[in-house]
Amino acid sequence: MNHSTDIHRLGEVSQAQELTLRLPYRPPYDWQAMLGFLARRAIPGLERIDATGYHRLFREGEAVGCVSVDQAAEEAALHATIRLPEHVDPSSVVARLQRLFDLQADPEAIRQGLGRDPTLAPLVERRPGLRVPGGWDPFEIAVRAILGQQVSVDAATRLAGRLIERLGERLDEPVKPGLDRLFPVPERFNYEEIKALGMPGARAAALAGLASAYREQPQLFERQSDLDETVARLCALPGIGAWTAHYIAMRGLREPDAFLPSDVAVQRALAEQGRRPTPRELLARAEAWRPWRAYAVMHLWHADAATTQAYPRE
């Protein structure tokens, strides 16, 4: 059954309470880099990035809300305007925003940790406020990561848009211009529906399997005692390898030491005399970057994009 015509009747969204909250961070904060990263991956109908900031719809329990976020640089904070039904506690939404925008990061500790590497030091000095963009929830990030396997960011975003159009619930009218879709819940992930989007069968099976595992194990995306254990748990799922598991850990689980040694953009940014380091060589070199390897990945992605006008895959 095609779910693209489903209507989610939620009149209480327009009648919801509206709260504007100040979300502080340790400066500096590279807001434009954060918005640029999210804009490349913005799914039409679900989220939008414009001159005023970041906007998205979300589901919180059985309720639906929307949020807009912009920067108040003079206050060293982000301002979030949240619309939710009055009976819903906004504290969990605030926690999601703190993870999404990496508001707990300590730029000085990261600078000291990465600044000893001769290649990373000038990158960190150039972008001292660079953060690791998170996600609204780990399941959504995991779906995006699988969609992006072996394809470009743009292709992955188009696939995600088609997935939401087919499986996501649609509001009867936009809450804000262009915002009328919700990310599909795991129960809506059906192999045949996903396969019909035109992706390989193995990838459709991986998405359906991920959703099934999450339904059966609600604690699937909880951080384990250490990063290796978290990655091993994710790699036990069909269709998820080390790159995808570390990407989920980096963005979905806020693991600051997640690392992608097989990532082409990371290897390209560290190439010397035309030779790219191997994953094994990268792992050895990155030992000195612990526990901030995920931030090293972000700096290397930006450095690679600046020289190739390319972007890392999803």
Which labels suit this protein?
single chain, 314 residues, alpha+beta, 42% helix, disordered N terminus
Describe the structure.
There is one protein chain. The protein is of the alpha+beta class. 42% of the residues lie in helices and 13% in strands. The protein is built from 13 helices and seven strands. The strands form two sheets. The chain has a five-stranded antiparallel sheet, covered by helices on one side. The protein has a two-stranded parallel ribbon with strand order 1-7. Helix 5 packs antiparallel against helix 10. The chain is globular, with a radius of gyration of 19 Å. The relative contact order is 0.14. The N terminus is likely disordered.
Q: Please report the total strand number as a whole number.
A: 7
The largest sheet is: 5 strands, antiparallel
* Total count of helical runs of at least 4 residues: 13
Q: Which structural category fits the helices and strands?
A: alpha+beta
Q: Helix content range of the residues, please?
A: 40-55%
How would you classify the quaternary structure? single chain
Q: Could you name the ranges where pLDDT drops below 50 across 5 or more consecutive residues?
A: 1-12
Order of helices and strands: EEHEEEEHHHHHEHHHHHHH
Strand order of the largest sheet: 2-6-5-4-3
Rounded Rg: 19 Å
How far is it from the N-terminal to the C-terminal residue, by CA?
A: 28 Å
What general outline do the C-alpha atoms trace?
Answer: globular
Percent of sequence in beta strands: 5-15%
How confident is the prediction overall: mean pLDDT?
92
